[in-house]
Write a structure and sequence with these properties.
423 residues, Peroxisomal Thiolase, Chain A, domain 1, 13 helices, globular
Length: 423
C-alpha cells in the first residue's frame, strides 16, 4: 500500500563513511575537525609518467573486515566500499542482522555511482590485449556495472523494494539520497539504504581528468593542492570512498526505539543546460536546485545556517557556486558558513554527495563546522565565510548539502538537526 501523506518525515538512523582521512564515520569526523588533508602520492598504480601524480586515496582499507575471501575477490573496490559503509550504517541503525523482521517489500536500496568498476575494467582490458578473450573473467560485467552496488546490498539485507543506481557524475549520490527521501515521504517505503561509492583512481581516469585540465597540478605539494575558494586554486584533487545512510520514516523509527541522528527535510534537482563540463557562470541551475530544496522543506533562506558547498577547488565552479549562494540567500549569505570539506577528503566523484550529506548531518548534530583548509588568499569572486580560519563551534539547525556535476547536473539536500520535537 502506498500512502500519500506528504507530511511523512524522513529520519536518518544510521550512517557510514570511508574516506581518504578515515575508515569510518568517527575517524573521518575527527580528521575533518583537525584539518587533515587526505592527499598524497598515488600508490594504487605507478603514476610516474602521469601529469598528475597525487590523489586522495583511502588508506589501509581491509575488505576482509566486511567480506569473506570469496566475496572480496568478487567485488571491485567501489563495491567493497559500498558494502563496508552500508554495514557501518546498518549496525548503527540497529539493523545489523538485516531487514528480516521488517516487511521486505517496503525496504529498498538506491546508491549513486559516477563511474563504477574502472580499476577492474582497465585490468581486464590489459588481459584482453595480452592474452585474448579467453582470459577475461566471467565476473567482469557484474563486477563492473554501477548498479551491482544496489543488487548486492539488497541480497545481503533482504530488501525487495526500490532498487537501482543513480549515475549523474558527481551529483550521483545527492540524487540517490533525494530519491530515497522521496520514496519514504510519499509512502512507497519505510526504510531505505542510500548513498554513494566510488573508486576510480586509475591510470585512465587520472590521465583523462588531467587532459581536461580540471585537476590541480601541484605535484610538489599535494596536501595543499585542494584549496576551494582560494584565489590560487587550480583544480580538484581526485578522491575515493563511500558514504551510506539508513533513512527511515520517523514514526517507524520511533516505534522500534531507534536513535534519530538527523532529518532530511527537502530535496532539489536541476540542470544547467549549458555545457558538458563547465558550470553555468550565473549559477542558474545551482540556484534552482537550492530554491527547490528550501521550498520542499518549507524553509526560507534565513533558516539556513550552514552550506556544505560543492566547492571542488576549480576556478569556474567555486565562483559560480558563490554567486548562486548570494542569489538564493540574498543578504543572509553573509551570515552563513559555506565550507568545503573536499579540501580534506578530495573529490570522490559519485560518492561526494553522500559523504557531504553525512558531514552536514554531523555538523547539525554536534554544532561544529569543519574548516576549509588551504585558503590563503581571498578571491574577489569568492567573498563569503568559508570557515577557512579553522573549525567553528556554532549551533546549526539547518544545513544545505550541494552536489554539482559535469553534464550540468545539480542536487541539493536540506538537512535539519534532530531535537526530538514534533514540527
Amino acid at each position: 500500500m502506498i500512502h500519500t501523506d506528504a507530511k511523512r518525515r524522513v529520519a536518518i538512523t544510521g550512517v557510514g563513511m570511508i574516506t581518504s582521512i578515515g575508515l569510518d564515520t568517527d575517524a573521518t569526523w575527527d580528521a575533518l575537525l583537525r584539518g587533515v588533508s587526505g592527499a598524497g602520492p598515488i600508490t594504487l598504480f605507478d603514476a610516474s609518467d602521469q601529469a598528475v601524480r597525487f590523489a586522495c586515496e583511502v588508506k589501509d582499507f581491509d575488505p576482509l573486515q566486511y567480506l569473506d575471501k570469496k566475496g572480496a575477490r568478487r567485488a571491485d573496490r567501489f563495491l567493497q566500499f559500498a558494502i563496508a559503509t552500508a554495514a557501518q550504517a546498518m549496525e548503527q541503525a540497529g539493523f545489523g542482522d538485516g531487514f528480516a523482521h521488517l516487511n521486505p517489500d517496503r525496504t529498498g536500496v538506491i546508491v549513486g555511482v559516477g563511474i563504477g568498476g574502472l580499476p577492474l575494467l582497465e585490468a581486464q582490458h590489459r588481459k584482453l590485449l595480452s592474452r585474448g578473450p579467453r582470459a577475461i573473467s566471467p565476473l567482469l560485467i557484474p563486477m563492473f556495472i554501477p548498479d551491482m552496488t544496489t543488487g548486492l546490498l539488497s541480497i545481503l539485507y533482504g530488501a525487495r523494494g526500490p532498487n537501482y543506481a543513480t549515475v549523474s557524475a558527481c551529483a550521483s549520490s545527492g540524487h540517490s539520497l533525494g530519491l530515497a527521501f522521496r520514496s519514504i515521504r510519499r509512502g512507497e517505503t519505510d526504510v531505505m539504504i542510500a548513498g554513494g561509492t566510488e573508486s576510480a583512481i586509475t591510470p585512465l581516469a587520472v590521465a583523462g581528468f588531467a587532459a581536461m585540465g580540471s585537476m590541480s597540478m601541484r605535484n610538489d605539494d599535494p596536501e595543499r593542492a585542494c584549496r576551494p575558494f582560494d584565489a590560487h586554486r587550480d583544480g580538484f584533487v581526485l578522491g575515493e570512498g563511500s558514504g551510506m545512510l539508513v533513512l527511515e520514516e520517523l514514526e517507524h523509527a520511533r516505534a522500534r526505539g531507534a536513535e534519530v541522528l538527523g532529518e532530511i527535510v527537502g530535496f532539489g534537482q536541476s540542470a544547467d543546460a549549458y555545457h558538458m563540463t563547465a558550470p553555468a557562470p550565473d549559477g542558474v541551475g545551482a540556484c534552482l536546485a537550492m530554491r527547490q530544496a528550501l521550498e520542499d522543506a518549507e524553509l526560507t533562506p534565513a533558516d539556513v545556517d550552514y552550506i556544505n558547498a560543492n566547492g571542488t577547488s576549480t576556478l569556474a565552479g567555486d565562483a559560480a557556486e558563490t554567486k548562486a549562494l548570494k542569489d538564493v540567500l540574498g543578504d543572509h549569505a553573509r551570515s552563513v558558513v559555506a565550507g568545503s570539506t573536499k579540501s580534506m577528503t578530495g573529490h570522490p566523484l559519485g560518492a561526494a554527495g553522500a559523504i557531504d550529506a553525512v558531514i552536514s548531518m554531523l555538523v547539525c548534530k554536534h554544532g561544529v563546522i569543519p574548516p576549509t583548509i588551504n585558503f590563503e588568499e581571498a578571491d574577489p569572486e569568492c567573498d563569503l565565510e568559508y570557515a577557512h580560519r579553522g573549525p567553528l563551534e556554532q549551533s546549526v539547525s539547518v544545513a544545505l548539502s550541494n552536489s554539482f556535476a559535469f553534464g550540468g547536473h545539480n542536487a541539493c539536500l536540506a538537512i535539519r538537526r534532530w531535537d526530538g520535537m514534533q514540527r
